[in-house]
Structures are given as C-alpha cells and as structure tokens.
Amino acid sequence: MKVSDVLQWIDEQAPFATACSFDNVGLLVGDENAEVHTVGLALDATNLLVERAKTLGVDLLITHHPVIFDPLRRVTANTPVYRMVQAGISCIAAHTNLDKAPGGTNDAAAAAMGLYDITSPESFESLGRLGLVDEQPVALLAKRLKEASHASTVRFYDAGHAARRVAVVAGSGGSMLEAAIEAGADTLVTGDIKHDRFVEAENRGINLVEWNHYDAEHLVLFGLKERLEAAFSVPVVLLREDNILQSV
Questions:
Q1: Which domains, from first to last, does the chain contain?
Q2: Is the pTM of this model over 0.85?
Q3: Cβ atoms of residues 91 and 49 within 8 Å
C-alpha cells in the first residue's frame, strides 16, 4: 500500500476539509506515492519519537498535532521534519478534523468519561460533546478521569453542585466555557485552562475540570490503531502510550 491509500482512508473517516481554518492537516512531510510497510501513531512528532519510529521500521507517521503548524524558518538536523526527511518517513496530521469526526478525539474522551445521551451542540462547532453522567460529586468525576487516562493529576473547581450534564472538549477548550454554559452544562471538562477561566467558572457557578491536554487526547490513538489494522494489512504501532510530563 502507499501513503496515498492511508491519506484517502483518513479523509473518509475525518475529512480534512472539516479542519478549522487555522489548522494544518493532511500530508505534511513525505511522498504520497511512497510504499508503507509500518505505520506509527503519536500525538506529537518529536525528535525522540522520530528516532523510535526509525528503529521500528516506521515509514508513515500519523500524528494528531501537526509537525508543521507555524511557518518554518529553518529545517536543521535537530528538528523532527529534517529527521523524517532523512529517514524517508512520511507524516500525516489529523488534528481538528479528527476532533470533529465521529469516533474521533472528543468521542474517545466522552467514552472514557462514561458519557451517554451524547450530542454536539451547534455552538460547539463539533469541537466538543455534551452528555450525561450519573449524578456525582465533581471530585469523583475528576478521580475517574485520572484513572481512565492514567493521568498524574486532574485539577478541578467545585461549584458546589454535582456533575450531571457534562461538556467535554478534548485538548485546549477553555474558550468554550460560555458555549458550555449556554448549552446547559453544569460541568466543563477540558485542558490547558488558564487562571481566568477558573475565576469565571466561580462567577458563573459551573464546575470546571482540567483534564491534561495529552491525557485526554491520546485516548483516540488506541481506537485509531484498531481501525487502521482492520483497514490495512500492515503493522500499526503506538510510539508513545503515556504522558511524559510528571508531577510531584
């Protein structure tokens, strides 16, 4: 099979045309006509992961976060792009298109949370999900998220009421606090929450749970691995399964 075959498959699962206008998705490094013998999956393309990909014989790397996002000013030996080109590794990014897609990043996060009666309100622009959990203290919800994703920490603000109608935005979704409130959520779960969002949560009386960006988003890779293996007869390897960030 060729890189173009996988590119087409991803486009069918999570159309690249649905990605946000600021995004950079699709084939970012390599040759769409190159043969693929082993596929590697990762949230990010780092130097360490490229080196691991080389040792495992990976010739196509699929990442969630684009290895080229901001304009590149230089491509030198200490950059992932250079190392991929040198090693003959192609790289496809599926970012906000995968966030929006059925079975994508947000659906994987919602499933890990045990959400049911799930919808994606129009105000979320498909970048989040809204659903129900059995009524529980927000501290218990945070604990369950930590266990489900093997996270080192999960921070939360308890507004003084139980979590029941929960919005989840995998990744960095603090800007969607207002949309979650408008959708009737009593709890928002997302990552990379700035201090002012916690202050606003207190003012608005909504529970706010910070589920680390990596811990929430990497869950999609497990399902993606299974789907790729079912679609293509090549090995698919997860290049990193755990968050390398540590807490004390």
A1: 3-98 (3.40.1390.30), 102-216 (3.40.1390.30)
A2: yes
A3: no
